[in-house]
Design goal:
Blueprint (H helix, E strand, L loop, with lengths): L2 H14 L7 H27 L10 H7 L7
Length: about 70
């Protein structure tokens, strides 16, 4: 084995060792915050979609408004 190969092998081993650097507590807290935020957004979106007035017959807005016109004042 040449000297350059030995140096490269030793450097690769040193990088492979656990250096103790990781996401840590802050990374975990950010992940939990994102999961909770996505869950709340999902619930809100479902509530808003339930409120949508869907017309299965495909009537236009003008046709639907003709049915709901108020009678004229006398």
């Amino acid at each position: 084995m040449g000297i350059l190969q030995a140096v490269a092998f030793t450097a690769a081993e040193a990088e492979a060792e656990d250096s103790g650097i990781g996401p840590g507590l802050y990374g975990f807290l950010v992940l939990i915050f994102l999961v909770v935020a996505l869950f709340l957004l999902y619930r809100s979106l479902r509530k808003q979609i339930r409120r949508v007035d869907f017309d299965a017959e495909g009537a236009s807005d003008a046709e639907r408004m003709r049915e709901h016109q108020e009678p004229p004042d006398r």
